[in-house]
Amino acid sequence: MTWCGRRALVRGALLAPLALVAADRFPGRPGRYFAGHGSDEHRTLAYGLDLDYDPDAGTLEGRARLRVVAERALREVRLDLAGLTVREALVDGRDVRPRRSGHKLVLPVGRTVPAGASFVVEVGYGGRPGPVRTPFGQIGWDRTGDAHGGTLVAAQPLGAPSWFPCNDRPDDKAEFTFRVRVPHGHQAVANGTLVDRDGDRWTYHHPGPMAPYLAALYTGRFAHGTWRARDSATGRTIAGRDAYPARLADAARHDLGRQPEMVEAFTRWFGPYPFETYGAVVVDADLDQPVENQTASVFGRNHVDGRRTWETLVAHELVHQWFGNSVSLRDWRDIWLNEGFATYGEWLWSEHLGEESADSLARAARRSLAARPAGLRLAAPGQDRIFDERVYDRGACTLHALRLTLGDAAFFAVLRSWHDTRRGGAADTAAFVAHAARSRPATVEPLLRSWLYDRRLPPLPEPRSQT
Question: What pLDDT is stored for residue 465 in this prediction?
Fold first, then answer.
């Protein structure tokens, strides 16, 4: 995502506020940001979401089936769900009586489930979904406000519970299947691949694994464009499919038209594209910034002008498919691993096009950082500042400092191996420091520690001949 903290989502009825825990403490995971979200007592293997949406009434009827594994012995399952009414709950096919505690949905298991055992949770629910209140504004499910009653999901970081029950942690990743019914003449677009269409029901499957905040559903009326790109790392073909309002089709096709070239460049720098498909969705609403929903990034109509004015954002969200989506965060404190990498991807794309070099952009960003208030520690910015622009710019400068220190060949090898060794998993800042410093610890470790942990802004190394 690009600067979520400044994003003003489109209008939509605000339901019950999403309770947040101010304290940074969590049993077994001290200092976890937004500790009131998610549970470390279980992990999710798969979500199956059966959804029926009525755009005229703005109502959603859903049934969620979660296959989970106990991480420790437990007698209840705690999920996140905000503002929607639970109509039925089952555990391994047995009816249970759920209770609500703020945005928490607590389901008794009825027995002690030992650590390592798997079981199935089903929740029938419904109501009028809407964005939830967070420190970053209203986030999650929203209506576009267009004549067709379209919807979008932009859930980073805390909005996933606005439309389905989930274990709302960035490191709890699972397979997803979406079965979505919308009225005749409307369409549904979700993460992954469209595997079936039966009348007004659209079925998408995404093996993921994917964190809940990256799950997406868009409904309305769209025109579509398809494209194909060569994965430079593997030679395979990546099939792309974009969606946008019909009246914006010509402009959108032009503005999104270099995605195949981006895929070829990014797979050369970062390694194989990590998923089965990709596409951009332009919704008929103004969004402050796009969001990198996995395999289906979302852009506002204001990001389409037929002149590629916002192409750096197209690159930014695509880079997130490697860094942020495929390699996810263990905790939101490590957000620079998402946003710093994606911002540096913007700079690489500019350099690739023969426009401003990454070095020029990094030095301009460092000058801007030097003029801003000091005091932000990149590796732990504070949960209210995870989308501070300094996280983006200082994160990208950190990578450029590493590139100048190692040279191109070694630097891009570090990025490729970072993704390759953690693809589909989650990681933190300490792991990246250890990974990058493996070949030259005496040089790289102090460099990264100064950029990541010191409040003082370090200097960039001098330019060098790239080898």
Answer: 60
pLDDT, tens digit, 9 for 90 and up, residues 310-335:
999 999 999 999 999 999 999 999 99
Q: Is the pLDDT assigned to residue 21 strictly greater than 60?
A: no
pTM of the model: 0.93
Which residues form the domain of 299?
223-319
Asked if 132 and 159 touch (Cβ cutoff 8 Å), the reply is yes
Q: Which domain-ending residue is among 202, 218, 234? A: 218
CA 167-173-175 angle, to 5 degrees, is 105
- Assess whether 76 and 137 both reside in one domain: yes
Percent of the chain with pLDDT over 70: 93
- 344 neighbors 394 (Cβ within 8 angstroms): no
- Of 168, 198, 218, the residue that ends a domain is 218
